[in-house]
C-alpha cells in the first residue's frame, strides 16, 4: 500500500485548536494521494496520560484536493470551507473536539487519514466504528501524524 504523508503545521498544539482557545479543527496537509482516490476520511484519537483513548473527530467524504482546511464547523454536513460529512465523537458531539489535558498532563493526538476509492454512503452522526465498517475494502492509502498538548 502506497503511504500518505500527513502533517500538521505544528508539533505542539497551539491554543487555537484546544479547549483553552477556540477549539477549531487544524489544517491537515495530505501529500502523495494517488490519482484513483475519490475521497478522504479522518479519525482523530486523543490519548491522555491517564485513562483510555477517545475518538475526538470523525469526518469523511472530503475531496482529495489540497490540504484539509482548518476551522471545519461542528455540523453534520459541511459545505465550507470544504465539503464533508461528520460523525459523533466519543465526547458526544458532532465534529472536532481538541485536546483538553489537566494541568501538568500531556495528551497525544493521532490524526489518521484514509484515502478511499469511493464516496461513502454513511449517515451524518455515525461513530468511528461505523466509519471503519463502511470503509472496509475501499482504503487504498493510510497516513498519520501525532501532535502533543500539555496542560
Explained architecture:
The protein has one helix spanning 128-135; strands at residues 5-8, 28-31, 39-48, 54-62, 77-78, 84-86, 106-116, 139-150. It has 151 residues and is mainly beta. The chain has a single domain (5-150), classed as Phosphatidylethanolamine-binding Protein (Alpha-Beta Complex). The strands form 2 sheets. It has a 6-stranded antiparallel β-sheet with strand order 5-6-4-3-7-8, covered by helices on one side. The protein has a two-stranded antiparallel sheet with strand order 1-2. A hairpin with a 5-residue loop joins strand 5 and strand 6.
Provide a compact summary of the structure.
This protein has one helix spanning 128-135; strands spanning 5-8, 28-31, 39-48, 54-62, 77-78, 84-86, 106-116, 139-150. With 151 residues, it is mainly beta.
Which tags fit this structure?
151 residues, mainly beta, Phosphatidylethanolamine-binding Protein, six-stranded antiparallel beta sheet, two-stranded antiparallel ribbon, 5% helix, 36% strand, globular
What's the multimeric state?
single chain
Reported by name, the CATH topology is: Phosphatidylethanolamine-binding Protein
* Helix/strand order, N-terminal first: EEEEEEEHE
Q: Tally the helices: what do you get?
A: 1
Helix content: under 10%
CATH class: Alpha Beta
Shape: globular
The end-to-end distance, rounded to whole angstroms, is: 37 Å
Q: Give the strand content.
A: 35-45%
Give the C-alpha Rg. Answer: 14 Å
Q: What class would the helix/strand composition place it in?
A: mainly beta
* Strand order in the sheet with the most strands: 5-6-4-3-7-8
Using DSSP, what is the number of strands? 8
Look at the structure and give the mean pLDDT: 94
How many domain units? 1
Reported CATH architecture: Alpha-Beta Complex
Q: How would you characterize the largest beta sheet?
A: 6 strands, antiparallel
Relevant CATH superfamily? PEBP-like
Low-confidence stretches: none
Pfam families: PBP (PF01161)
Protein name: Phosphatidylethanolamine-binding protein
Organism: Methanoculleus taiwanensis
Amino acid at each position: 500500500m502506497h503511504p500518505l504523508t500527513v502533517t500538521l503545521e505544528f508539533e505542539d498544539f497551539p491554543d487555537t485548536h484546544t479547549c483553552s482557545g477556540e477549539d477549531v479543527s487544524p489544517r491537515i496537509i495530505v501529500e502523495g494521494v494517488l490519482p484513483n482516490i475519490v475521497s478522504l476520511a479522518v479519525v482523530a484519537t486523543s490519548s491522555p496520560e491517564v485513562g483510555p483513548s477517545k475518538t475526538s473527530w470523525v469526518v469523511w467524504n472530503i475531496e482529495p484536493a489540497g490540504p484539509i482546511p482548518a476551522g471545519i464547523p461542528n455540523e453534520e454536513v459541511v459545505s465550507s470551507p470544504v465539503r464533508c460529512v461528520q460523525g459523533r465523537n466519543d465526547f458526544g458531539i458532532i465534529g472536532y473536539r481538541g485536546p483538553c489535558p489537566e494541568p501538568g498532563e500531556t495528551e497525544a493526538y493521532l490524526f489518521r487519514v484514509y484515502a478511499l476509492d469511493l464516496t461513502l454512503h454513511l449517515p451524518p452522526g455515525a461513530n468511528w466504528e461505523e466509519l471503519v465498517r463502511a470503509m472496509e475494502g475501499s482504503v487504498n492509502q493510510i497516513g498519520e501524524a501525532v501532535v502533543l498538548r500539555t496542560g
